[in-house]
Design goal:
The structure is a single chain. By secondary structure, this protein is an alpha/beta fold. Among the domains are: about 5-20 and about 35-60 and about 625-725, Tetratricopeptide repeat domain (Serine Threonine Protein Phosphatase 5, Tetratricopeptide repeat, Alpha Horseshoe); about 75-340, Rossmann fold, CATH 3.40.50.1460; about 350-415, Carboxypeptidase-like, regulatory domain (Immunoglobulin-like, Sandwich), CATH 2.60.40.1120. A hairpin with a 2-residue loop joins β17 and β18. It has a six-stranded mixed beta sheet with strand order 4-3-5-9-10-14, sandwiched between helices. Strands 18-17-20-21 form a four-stranded antiparallel beta sheet, with no helix packed on it. It is globular and about 85 Å long. It is about 45% helix and about 15% strand. α10 (about 425-440) runs antiparallel to α11 (about 445-460) and α12 packs antiparallel against α13 (about 480-495).
Length: about 725
């Protein structure tokens, strides 16, 4: 029986070749003239084995594998408010945001373009919005949004993944420039002296979207000065390239040609006005008939009307009505099914003022921003009628929920008063403290008694969010994940701005394999609290398991910047680097992890990794024992070094590292498999038939532990080939 965790198996199968991003052949040294007969035979047999390894590496990423949750990227079935079934197509998006331009003068810097891109990213991956899979939305923000990266994503990635029945969205927030009659989007490394060299031509954008990318629905959203140059009324020739007779294109731009695109703190705490209304529209406000679907036509009408009104007619978003399907689905909002009849066409505004800093505002159950004492939060574009308002701040009783009326065409100020500190029941606090003491001791027996204490504390004080959080963590440590999820959701419900609870909740979601929801929770935390190191390394883990390796590496580096001594941040940096083929750097990161977590086993058994935030989200372990978790992690790190050395053809070092991994987990089938491969390669490299015996032994051990793994077929072939090549008789 395979005893490794689902997440562990996934990473090790990637390392063993079952889910690699590209086939990696191993270079074979040329044989010497004097090579012995058995070595010649061995080389031929090993070449055959390497051929089989190539075939394994080329397996589709969604191949079903034992003990691994496989996420299939398929269209989503849903139903509208009337119960009519429909399909949300498989979807891909590129989101680009550039605010700070290092090669431009101060007056060209933008305050909110990068925040705009983050908002679009959040609404696209939301189940109450775009319903995109997280790995299908590539984000280039700030220094990542170079001309080279934008060109690669647009001209290589999107055309390579999008199929004729898919949906593709491209969003850009930043500067656009006119030069010699042509329009250019300005990437991060843009220079004014030659826009045609340093900018991305809108002509090329039109050609890529209109022709190179194959998709049923194509959406182009550009929030930049002069982005209106690609609008049909201003450039008929370019628009002809955008219109593809075999597919539907929706091009919505922030402004007409020669108009400015505005940004201001007046829109949702700081946004470009165009993106603010695009985001609100995709969140559901553009769903005028409240059928739970935001169509292209609805979004265009909502954005155009509100942006014109907000800017006094100085900015006019444009869309070509002739070139897109008016029923094109841009967002699915299940909660809109309960909103009732369509709102009046005239929208209103709520302005929130607060007596404290850091107050999170919820409108109709959705977070709409944070308000500070000196910074009111202005929310224009709201449908008229009654809306539910709630404001929360950690440690205080909330203001609301209460009802506020939005009047057509009017602006209304809502005063938020956060006054009453949340008073804890003394008995509840005592029970909570008792529970924390037991929880920090670790081990299953202590967790059980801690859970009873936390449950009693929450019963005595139903608004005790910390008790709910620790109860959730306790059930997570006991691997009772349904109960764990229940109380994580309770903690966030009590205190929606409880970032620690959201980050820990994401860790539990990683344990259960709900990677998309984990990414959504972590996206909230990292945008709201950029100093939350645990959230960054959990985000790194989520991205790594989604095979979003660039994003994983970036998040891990941010975690390390914040807490260089946190070993797990180094571990996830190592995982991302190794799976991305950066083997020397990966080895250094693994070694940093091992150094930072070099506790003796007795101390490790007493450490509570969940309480310390070390191993939240590390996947289900075999027993509720902290010592076991510590051993699993060290085994994984040594395995990573082994695999990196093997890929670097350093077979001796790989053998040493894999043997270290087996010291901590002697029954891991993947380590035995990779160790067998390493011995086999070393036997070939050194023409040493004595190394065939340990290679055979480790392949056979792997088969004894779990004969049903996909690698089992190749292990059997390897054993047979090695016995013949080396003259090793079967027992």
């Amino acid at each position: 029986m395979n005893s490794a965790s689902p997440m562990t198996n996934h990473r090790r199968q990637q390392a063993a070749g079952a889910r690699t991003r590209a086939p990696r052949a191993i270079a074979m040294p040329a044989p010497a003239v004097s090579i012995s007969t058995w070595a010649v035979l061995g080389i031929f047999m090993l070449l055959a084995l390497l051929f089989s390894m190539r075939a394994l590496a080329q397996q589709p990423a969604n191949t079903q594998q034992r003990d691994l949750k496989v996420e299939k990227d398929v269209p989503i079935e849903a139903e509208d408010a009337a119960g009519k079934k429909f399909v949300i197509p498989r979807s891909y998006a590129l989101v680009v945001g550039v605010g700070q331009y290092p090669n431009l003068e101060t007056n060209f810097q933008l305050a909110y373009a990068e925040k705009d891109a983050e908002s679009i990213y959040s609404v696209l991956i939301s189940p109450e919005g775009g319903n995109f899979r997280a790995e299908n939305v590539h984000k280039l923000v700030g220094p990542d949004a170079t001309l080279e990266n934008i060109r690669r994503e647009l001209e290589e990635w999107l055309p390579s993944v999008a199929q004729p029945e898919d949906r593709v969205i491209i969003y850009f927030a930043g500067h656009g420039f006119l030069y010699q009659g042509g329009g250019y989007l300005a990437p991060y490394d843009f220079r004014m002296e030659d826009p045609s060299k340093y900018g991305y031509p809108m002509k090329s954008l039109g050609e890529v979207v209109g022709g190179t990318i194959s998709a049923r629905w194509k959406v182009l959203l550009t929030d930049s000065c002069h982005s209106g140059v690609i609008a049909p009324e201003d450039s008929a020739q370019l628009n002809s390239r955008l219109v593809n007779l075999s597919s539907s294109l929706f091009s919505l731009t922030a402004s007409r040609d020669r108009e400015r695109s505005f940004e201001s703190p007046d829109w949702g705490g700081g946004h470009g006005v165009f993106t603010y209304y695009v985001t609100k529209g995709l969140e559901g406000l553009a769903d005028e008939n409240t059928d739970s679907i935001v169509t292209a036509d609805e979004l265009a009408e909502y954005v155009r009307r509100n942006v014109r009104e907000a800017t006094g007619g100085e900015q006019n978003p444009t869309a070509d009505r002739s070139s897109f399907d008016k029923d094109m689905l841009l967002a699915y909002i299940p909660s809109n099914k309960t909103l009732g009849s369509a709102p009046a066409p005239k929208f209103g505004t709520l302005v929130f003022e607060a007596n404290r800093d850091g107050v999170e505002v919820f409108l109709d159950g959705k977070s709409v921003g944070v308000v500070n004492k000196a910074e009111p939060l202005r929310l224009p574009g709201l449908p008229p009628g009654v809306h539910t308002v709630k404001a929360v701040k950690m440690g205080f009783e909330p203001d609301g929920p209460r009802e506020e009326v939005v009047y057509p065409g009017q602006e209304k100020t809502v005063s938020i008063k956060i006054l009453i500190p949340r008073r804890r029941n003394r008995a509840a606090v005592d029970k909570f403290d008792d529970g924390v003491d037991k929880y920090n001791r670790g081990y299953a027996k202590n967790y059980r008694t801690a859970a009873a204490d936390f449950t009693e504390a929450l019963a005595l004080d139903p608004k005790y969010s910390q008790a709910a959080l620790y109860l959730a963590r306790t059930y997570n440590a006991l691997y009772e994940q349904d109960q764990s999820r229940k109380y994580f959701e309770k903690a966030v419900e009590i205190d929606p701005d409880y970032m620690e609870a959201r980050a820990s909740f994401a860790g539990m979601l990683l344990d259960t394999g709900d990677l998309d929801e984990a990414i959504r929770q972590l996206n909230v935390v990292t945008q709201r609290d950029k100093s939350n190191a645990m959230a960054w390394y959990l985000q790194s883990q989520a991205y790594c398991r989604k095979e979003m390796l660039k994003e994983s590496i970036s998040s891990a580096r941010k975690a390390i910047e914040l807490t260089p001594e946190n070993g797990e941040a180094h571990f996830w940096l190592a995982e991302g680097l190794r799976l991305n083929g950066e083997y020397p750097e990966a080895k250094q990161a693994y070694q940093s992890y091992l150094k930072l977590t070099d506790f003796n086993s007795k101390l490790a058994g007493n450490l509570n990794y969940y309480a310390l935030g070390f191993l939240v989200g590390m996947g289900k372990k075999r027993r509720a024992s902290q010592q076991d978790i510590w051993k699993d992690m060290r085994s994984l790190a040594w395995f990573g070094i082994c695999d990196a050395d093997r890929k670097l053809n350093s077979y001796g070092s790989a053998i040493e590292a894999c043997n270290q991994a087996l010291r901590y987990d002697s029954e891991d089938p993947y380590t035995h498999y990779v160790l067998g491969l390493s011995y086999a390669h070393q036997a070939n490299a050194q023409n040493d038939r004595n190394l065939c015996t340990p290679a055979i032994r480790h392949f056979e051990t792997m088969l004894e532990i779990n004969p049903e793994l996909e690698q089992a077929e190749f292990a059997r072939k390897n054993v047979g080939a090695l016995r013949k090549a080396c003259g090793v008789a079967a027992p």
